[in-house]
Design brief:
Length: 115
């Protein structure tokens, strides 16, 4: 009997914390699901919060399209003046950030900032 890896679609859960919106990502972030993240980010930033937290602890996979989303989002945070906090993912998703050295330039935190 062979085991087959089953793709987990991306789930995005939004929490409106006192510090600002927090997006919790679960599943796989790839070329097919990256537009959904972009829509969720745009909706979360519509009210002009001072902080956006993206919790990646339950992200199972990301590809270069997903990585690009976070690089662009970090630039947007700098340009628009809000604080971005990315809660560090577990392997193997973390490996993508490490191999590309993007981890060194993105605002990772170990835990979501307290409200």
């Amino acid at each position: 009997m062979h085991s087959v890896a089953v793709a987990r679609p991306l789930e995005i859960e939004r929490h409106d914390d006192a510090a600002g919106p927090r997006l919790v990502l679960r599943g796989e972030l790839d070329i097919a699901t990256a537009p959904r993240l972009q829509e969720a980010v745009d909706a979360a930033l519509a009210a002009g919060p001072q902080m956006l937290v993206v919790d990646l602890r339950e992200l199972a996979f990301l590809d270069s399209s997903g990585l690009r989303q976070f690089i662009v989002l970090a630039g947007r945070a700098e340009q628009e003046g809000f604080r971005l906090a990315l809660v560090r993912p577990a392997p193997p998703a973390l490996a993508v950030f490490q191999i590309t050295r993007a981890e060194e330039n993105l605002p990772f935190v170990e835990e979501p900032p307290s409200s």
